[in-house]
Design a protein that fits this description.
- The protein is built from 13 helices and ten strands.
- It is α+β, with helices and mostly antiparallel strands and about 450 residues long.
- The strands form four sheets. The protein has a three-stranded antiparallel beta sheet with strand order 6-5-10.
- A hairpin with a 6-residue loop joins strand 5 (about 230-235) and strand 6.
- Helix 1 crosses helix 2 (about 45-60) and helix 10 crosses helix 12 (about 400-410).
- Bound molecules: zinc ion.
- Zinc ion (ZN) binds near residues 114, 151 and 154.
């Protein structure tokens, strides 16, 4: 995951205009006393809408009614009914319509990339993703702090996780979720005693939210890189299984770790040639490599997760398998002839090789035209770096680019600005990070990157 700094405020995010309805009146009674100008044409603010959701969620969770500002008792049954209406209302009070209006602002702030797998998504399928699902945490449904962006695959895999997600290391799911809410299944073991069942109080419920936030590695947390690690996986046959390598500057589309790849596999599904796939057939690396097995690819994997690493966010989006200790390869296993529509692994692999090529070209350019060279025809490095930044932006997978670059040119901590004119240590990784974030190309770059945490 790319480390990001999430925006606190989305400038255009607001409850859309809506007509007056029975639902609207019921909701406005919760946040506006009689006489306040909510009935009629006034629209909810986001804070008011959030307050309504908070009020209703609290009643359902505690199974205790509460009075609205008109003194009318809202029973748990009333609250459930209102929630149902908010989910299904055919007007702009519908929950999806409200938070959905945040989408363009989120894209402006974070770029057109999935917050989890980092795949670029340039169409309407890049969606607002709720970190804690709105179905179980209705009170968080319209809060920017609970938003990320997700590609269709990650969104689908994540579903209602982490609520229904098996916790790190296995065990019972956090909560078996059924709409509207079912807290009857025990929570994770780390939840304080007394919270193993449905929270009995609102503070317990809020504490549960915090536990779930803390139990997962989200992209705005320090260390998000390690949660979606990068390595190249090479299938070495049934006996050896997958082997993992670090970036190798000799790697190309026809060689890996200096070994010649004898064929490129254009997709493994018979009759469905997909030339752009970086799926590789047969590598002459060693006898252990079995003929006619597809080889590659980039997968984040955690055969033995190091201390402090939390692959559970990768698990959440179907990108890490605790059973095998492997990443995306388990969900696109070319060794079994299975070909999924999940494109995350293939696109990530392509980004890996593109980054290798770019680094080697930059390295050559740097040799003939050092950073900080005076203006003129010798500025090849500077110009090429700008082009590489544009390429990387279009490719996506920021973490892959930085991983590859940082392997050969470890970033100088805190030195992400351009190499000083007239000298200074040239550092490709620092220049790259600066180039795709601080000086992002027009219409591109990786907006919202947390530069301080941007080195693996
Ligand atoms: Zn994704």
């Amino acid at each position: 995951m790319r480390p990001i700094t999430k925006p606190a405020v989305l400038p255009n995010y607001a409850v859309p205009a809506h007509g007056v309805s029975a639902l609207y009146n019921a909701m406005s009674d919760i946040v506006a006393p009689t006489g306040a100008p909510y009935r009629g044409t006034a629209q909810f603010t986001l804070n008011e809408y959030a307050s309504v959701l908070d009020f209703l969620q609290r009643i359902v969770i505690t199974n205790t009614g509460a009075n609205d500002l008109h003194g009318t008792l809202i029973t748990p049954a009333d609250a459930t009914n209102l929630i149902q209406q908010i989910y299904t209302a055919a007007n702009n009070l519908k929950l999806d319509d409200v938070y959905g209006s945040a989408r363009l602002d989120m894209i402006s702030a974070l770029g057109q990339y999935c917050s989890f797998c980092e795949m670029p998504v340039g169409d309407s399928s890049l969606a607002i993703e709720h970190m804690l699902p709105k179905s179980a945490f209705l009170n968080l449904a319209v809060l920017t702090a609970n938003f990320l962006l997700a590609c269709p695959v990650c969104n689908s895999k994540k579903s209602n996780n982490p609520v229904s997600q098996t916790p790190l290391g296995g065990g019972a799911p956090f909560i078996t979720y059924q709409w509207p809410i079912n807290w009857s299944t025990p929570l994770i073991p780390s939840v304080p005693v007394g919270m193993a069942l449905k929270p009995a109080s609102w503070p317990d419920y809020l504490n549960t939210e915090q536990v779930l936030f803390n139990a997962y590695m989200w992209p705005q947390y320090t260390g998000s890189y390690q949660s979606f690690d990068q390595q190249l996986a090479i299938y070495a046959g049934a006996a050896l299984g997958y082997q993992y390598t670090q970036p190798n500057r000799l790697d190309t589309i026809t060689t890996i770790q200096g070994q010649t790849i004898t064929a490129l596999l254009h997709g493994v599904r018979a009759g469905h040639a997909i030339p752009e796939d970086v799926s590789i057939l047969t590598i002459s690396r060693a006898a252990a490599f079995i003929q006619n097995n597809s080889v590659p690819v980039v997968a984040h994997n955690f055969l033995a997760p190091p201390a402090g690493v939390f692959p559970n966010s990768a698990t959440m989006v179907g990108a890490f398998n605790f059973g095998t200790g492997r990443g995306l390869i388990d969900f696109n296993d070319t060794t079994t002839g299975t070909y999924f529509t999940d494109r995350r692994m293939f696109n990530r692999t392509k980004a890996w090789f593109n980054a290798l090529y770019a680094f080697n070209r930059l390295n050559s350019a740097q040799a003939i035209s050092p950073p900080g060279a005076p203006p003129g025809p010798t500025q090849a490095y500077t110009i090429l770096m700008q082009e590489v930044c544009s390429t990387a932006s279009a490719n996506g997978f920021f973490s892959v680019w930085v991983t590859v670059f940082n392997t050969f040119a470890p970033a100088v901590a805190g030195a992400f600005g351009p190499t000083p004119a007239g000298g200074g240590l040239p550092n490709l990784t620092c220049d790259f990070i600066n180039g795709v974030t601080v000086n992002a190309p027009v219409g591109g770059g990786f907006p919202g990157t947390n530069i301080i945490n941007s080195v693996p």
